[in-house]
Amino acid sequence: MKIGKKQGVQSSIPTGSMADIIFLLLIFFMVTTIFKMETGLPISLPRAESGGELERERLINIWADRFNRISINDKLLHVDDIDKVIAARLEENPSLIVAFKVDRFVRYRLVSDIIDQLKHANAINVTFVSVGED
Predict the structure, then answer these.
(1) Which of these, 14, 45, 52, 83, could form a disulfide with 120 (CB 3.0-4.6 Å)?
(2) Residues with Cβ < 8 Å from 78, sequence gap 6 or more?
(3) Which residues fall within 8 angstroms of residue 102, CB to CB, at 6 or more apart?
(4) Sign of the CA dihedral 103, 50, 54, 58?
């Protein structure tokens, strides 16, 4: 008598229509999901007025680039010298506005150091200048 091996029963899950089922479930959840926007407090935000040109005497520009170079009105300076230059200009013109222009790749440590120097010089009219996307 010949006894043969039993063939193993192979079970498999048919995955041919799996993509269709997933796609239908995705559409179902997209259609039935409700997104509630937060309303917050009912406030009225102020409108921005169009800016005008400032006199050159009222404006001082501070530039900082990614190589940690700092320039005030086209003169290269070290971080520690900023408060002396700004304080001297503030004595001449108390309504001085400091325009702070920084490269987007500057380390925040340098920005923080410059802001500290502006605080030491008592520069209260500081504006951060940005440009639109390239």
Answers:
(1) 83
(2) 70
(3) 63, 64, 111, 128
(4) negative
Q: Which tokens sit at 78?
A: 């070290």
DSSP state of 106: S
Residues 21-69: pLDDT tens digits?
Answer: 899 999 999 898 887 765 544 545 456 555 556 566 788 888 888 888 8
Q: What is the C-alpha separation between 32 and 60, in angstroms, rounded? A: 56
CATH code for the domain defined by 57-129? 3.30.420.270
Rounded CA gap, 127 and 84, in Å?
A: 19
d(CA 124, CA 82): 14
Q: What is the pTM of this model?
A: 0.56
Rounded distance, CA 85 to CA 73, Å? 11
